[in-house]
């Protein structure tokens, strides 16, 4: 390898590091915020499902241990216990991450809840069935352009609450 090769490798490494360190673009934050809002009800369902699955996993292990201990004098295999505990811990961690995301969303929504145009967010992302821009405009008695403008404004506010400075175009 000659000095040109080394220089080229260093340059590529620096470019890669810069790409990894770049902030999310405001447009990406906007889209991510919308995706989060659309997913809120599914996230709540996921937490409840995880909670029930964890309880079932624990009960299943308790039942297995009891019946296994009756058959084998040595009791259950230690490796099985470790794997089971790790499986339960992994599910609990995933559930906690989801719960934290739900709390972040709810805190953000609380921050904008008193805005006169909060209904635009509610009708677009949170209620069932979700309404399109025209339906929201009819519901809040304004035109579609006004709905789009206030929706963008409020999503941008939420993006800042969720992503901080990365959501700003500075």
General description of the model:
This protein is an all-alpha fold and 170 residues long. It contains six helices and no strands. The protein has helices at 3-21, 26-71, 78-112, 118-126, 133-140, 144-163. Helix 5 (133-140) packs across helix 6.
Topology readout:
Blueprint: H1 3-21, H2 26-71, H3 78-112, H4 118-126, H5 133-140, H6 144-163
Report the strand count.
0
N-to-C SSE string, H for helix and E for strand? HHHHHH
Strand content: under 5%
Rg (C-alpha, Å) = 25 Å
Helix content range: over 70%
Distance between the termini: 41 Å
- Give the overall average pLDDT: 85
Structural class: mainly alpha
Shape: flat
- Poorly predicted runs of 5 or more residues: none
The number of distinct helices, counting runs of at least 4 residues, comes to 6
Largest sheet: none
In short:
This protein has 170 residues and is mostly helical. It has six helices and no strands.
List the main descriptive attributes of the protein structure presented here.
170 residues; mainly alpha; 6 helices; 81% helix; flat
């Amino acid at each position: 390898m000659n000095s040109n090769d080394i220089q080229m490798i260093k340059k590529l490494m620096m470019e890669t590091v810069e790409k990894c360190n770049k902030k999310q673009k405001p447009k990406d934050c906007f889209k991510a915020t919308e995706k989060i809002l659309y997913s809120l009800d599914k996230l709540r369902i996921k937490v409840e499902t995880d909670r029930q699955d964890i309880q079932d996993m624990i009960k299943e292990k308790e039942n297995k241990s009891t019946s296994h201990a009756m058959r084998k004098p040595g009791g259950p295999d230690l490796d099985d216990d470790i794997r089971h505990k790790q499986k339960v811990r992994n599910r609990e961690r995933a559930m906690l991450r989801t719960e934290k995301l739900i709390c972040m969303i709810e805190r953000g929504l609380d921050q904008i809840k008193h805005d006169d145009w909060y209904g635009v967010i509610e009708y677009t992302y949170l209620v069932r069935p979700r309404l399109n821009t025209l339906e929201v405009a009819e519901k809040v008695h304004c035109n579609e352009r006004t709905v789009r403008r206030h929706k963008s404004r409020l999503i941008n506010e939420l993006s800042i609450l969720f992503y901080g400075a990365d959501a700003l175009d500075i």
